[in-house]
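FAQ: What does a multi-protein file look like?

Like this. Sequence, then tokens, then the next protein.
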Amino acid sequence: MNYTNEKRYSLKQIVILLTIAFSLVSIISYAAVTIPNTFTSGTTISSSQVNDNFTALKTAVDANSIDISALKTVHTGTASVGAMVGVTLNSTVATYQCGGGPGTYGRCAANTLTNDYLAAPIQLPNGATITGISYTCYDNDATYDSVARLWYFGDNAYGEVGAATTSGTSTSNQKVFRTGLNHIVDNSSNAYTVYMSINTSAVGYIVPIKFTVTYTYML
């Protein structure tokens, strides 16, 4: 295929594009990139030669993409929310700040109207995979336990991601775990809320303190 004078500008565009592309790939790729065909202005070139150059470029880009993917590693992160920022679902249930285990504070029920939950939003990174949760709570009540739940609320669906529950009695804070979760955070469709139960019969003997989400992400 012989390019005429009126088509030489298109040839220059092709040559410039290939030169820039190969230069970029050479910079970011570990392996050298070999250009099959070199063009000069005014010479006859064929479409197969141009295609061969683009094929070499694609091969280099694909190989570089594999190398970059191999470098990605899984990292672990956490996000927490304290019970002190939680609000009751039932506005008639009063709460107050009270001490949990030694040196810690949380929020507990102040009257005996009804049992309820402290609700608090939690911010999670989009695309991360939730793998576990933990719940820190002072529970020194022999009759009642406290449960913490992580829920998502979406455009067209909602559901519980996971829950962790205290048990028995203790004069120090209990930290209970739930592992084996596999929920991918989607902030474009969902919002995430933590619920920590309070018991108006237990009052200061059940004191939610903190809820933590463990997640993994690629970097």
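And here is the next protein:
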Amino acid sequence: MIFEYLPHGDMFSMVAGKGAFSENVVRVLAAELLTVTHYINCSGLAHRDLKLENIMLDSNYDMRIVDLGFACAIQG
């Protein structure tokens, strides 16, 4: 397997290490999180284990949602 290098780690570690984000940063991250979860749901999946530890950040601080072990197909 080949994995993408995500130098900023997960959101939990970032919050634990740096403390609270500013309101402007939270707005950007929240908008991106809504976009990502909307894409996952439109693809017919539900993540079912979304937490700070499962949100990784790349070198540009763009989100990557990981750990789809509990994901399931949306029915109905």
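Q: Is there any per-entry metadata?
A: Some entries carry free-text notes. For the entry above: The mean pLDDT is 93.
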